[in-house]
Amino acid sequence: MTDAAGDATVHLVARLVPRAGKADDLLQAVLAILPQVRSEPGCIAYLAHASRDEPGVIVMIETWADQAALDSHATAPAFTGLAARFADLLGAPPSLERLQHIG
């Protein structure tokens, strides 16, 4: 999808809510993949944030060159390795919201 200016960039917000007692494990797992993900083709930004309102919740703010780059990330070793641990680490499925920059 491109916006009115023809920009195919995909912005994504992912919210990761840890299972009880797993906040530190989730944090370490996310921090461990940052360098690898940031070197993936099409990755413009891959930023991890800790929620100030909900301790333990991690919010990822991502920017990808296009949908193909995001799709590639979803099958890359760093993410698939983390996703394989979601059942143990997360108390709920990740919340994902793809965004289009408008101004």
Automatic annotation (TrEMBL):
One of the Pfam families matching this protein, by short name: ABM
E.C. no: 1.-.-.-
Keyword tags: Monooxygenase, Oxidoreductase
SUPFAM superfamilies: Dimeric alpha+beta barrel (SSF54909)
GO molecular function: monooxygenase activity
UniProt key word Transport: no
Domain ABM positions: 10-99
PANTHER family documented for this protein: ABM DOMAIN-CONTAINING PROTEIN, QUINOL MONOOXYGENASE YGIN-RELATED
Identification of the protein by name: Quinol monooxygenase
